[in-house]
């Protein structure tokens, strides 16, 4: 009888140990709302990244990965509460997300309070790894400065005049601030800055102000647009014939659905984070093949980012040898890992992932339903002096 009791106790302890050995990761992101397409891509990419980095086992050092999903509905208060729930009630080892920069900013203090890692993907605002950063925050997504510096390299030239249009919240304002700063290093000042609410559908008034600021200038005139989600400002402003003032469009890359509207702008130049045909490396080859096989479509803008985050999480836990937060921080600071975009590196000073960007020129092919960002050249980590903004 004593042997049976002892055996039962050992068995119970083994089961308890096995249960606590699982690696819990929370993906907290805006599954519903205006950025739903971004969210789905990010989650698909995250799961593919975990699969790729674990060789299909979904285990790290014999411990099973448990994924917990939570929907912020793009509300900052939801993001904050759900992250508290994930760290507190669910006892996750780390969290990944969110989609929106505004939601991310509400979540940052929670990571510091609970002393747990928040791996930010795909929110972009500079302030996430800048003014509002804390040591528990890492980001695989590019930041506004990376968009801005890459765009400045792509657009700068002699006698170039640039005006901007962006959404009036953290993503847009941080993006333009970084773009303005990057242009200044090349001796270019912005002619005009225009901000509009995120739900704007009528761009008549902003466009008229931009036209009035640029119409009498000589030289090359470009309207640089940063916009996420719906609204389609490029097409709506194009319908107002900015060409009569010699104004051309410029912008950043986007998801395939949004690139459909870029077909109106053959020859448009800019810089992008990702387009599936641009990188040339084994990880991207795997992603493209698997995505076509499973979904019948190429991987999109945020799919690559999600995959980068998934691989980073696995590599960090492997390197740390555990999910202990301090061990993870030590492992992740300066960590290099391979992604669909090639090698990324977490900068020790602010935990921002340094990464390649792509200078593109839009090509239109009647047999392809979206505009094609054709590679002009890769912009490597060494070419882009990204400011450290958390000091």
From TrEMBL:
CDD domains: PBP1_SBP-like (cd06328). InterPro entries: BCAA_transport, Leu-bd, Peripla_BP_I. Keywords: Amino-acid transport, Signal, Transport. Residues 1-21 form the signal peptide. Residues 23-363 form the Leucine-binding protein domain. It holds the Pfam family Peripla_BP_6. It comes from the Bacteria. The keyword Signal applies. Belongs to the leucine-binding protein family. This is Substrate-binding domain-containing protein.
């Amino acid at each position: 009888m004593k042997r049976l009791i002892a055996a039962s106790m050992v068995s119970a302890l083994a089961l308890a140990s096995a249960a606590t050995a699982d690696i819990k990761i929370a993906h907290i992101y805006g599954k519903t709302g205006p950025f739903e397409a971004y969210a789905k891509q990010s989650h698909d990419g995250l799961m593919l990244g975990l699969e790729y980095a674990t060789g299909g086992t979904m285990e790290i050092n014999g411990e099973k990965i448990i994924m917990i999903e939570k929907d912020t509905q793009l509300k900052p208060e939801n993001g904050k509460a759900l992250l508290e729930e994930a760290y507190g009630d669910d006892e996750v080892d780390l969290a990944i997300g969110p989609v929106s920069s505004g939601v991310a900013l509400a979540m940052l203090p929670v990571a510091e309070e609970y002393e747990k890692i928040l791996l930010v993907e795909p929110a972009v605002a500079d302030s996430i790894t800048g003014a509002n950063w804390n040591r528990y925050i890492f980001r695989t997504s590019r930041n506004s400065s990376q968009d801005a510096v890459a765009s400045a390299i792509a657009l700068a030239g002699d006698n170039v005049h640039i005006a901007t249009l962006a959404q009036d919240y953290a993503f847009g304002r941080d993006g333009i601030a970084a773009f303005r700063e990057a242009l200044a290093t090349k001796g270019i000042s912005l002619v005009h800055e225009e901000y509009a609410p995120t739900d704007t559908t009528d761009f008549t008034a902003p466009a008229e102000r931009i036209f009035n600021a640029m119409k009498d200038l000589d030289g090359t005139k470009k309207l640089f647009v940063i916009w996420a989600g719906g609204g389609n400002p490029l097409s709506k402003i194009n319908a107002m014939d900015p060409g009569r003032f010699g104004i051309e469009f410029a912008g950043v890359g986007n998801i395939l659905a949004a690139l459909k509207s870029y077909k109106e702008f053959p020859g448009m130049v800019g810089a992008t984070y990702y387009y599936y045909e641009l990188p040339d490396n084994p990880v991207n080859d795997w992603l493209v093949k698997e995505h076509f096989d499973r979904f019948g479509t190429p991987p999109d803008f945020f799919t690559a980012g999600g995959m980068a985050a998934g691989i980073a999480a696995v590599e960090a836990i492997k390197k740390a040898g555990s999910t202990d937060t301090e061990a993870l921080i030590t492992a992740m600071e300066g960590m290099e890992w391979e992604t669909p975009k090639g090698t990324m590196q977490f900068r020790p000073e602010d935990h921002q992932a340094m990464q390649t960007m792509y200078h593109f020129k839009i090509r239109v092919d009647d047999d392809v339903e979206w505009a094609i960002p054709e590679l002009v050249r890769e912009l490597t980590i060494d070419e882009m002096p990204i400011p450290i903004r958390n000091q």
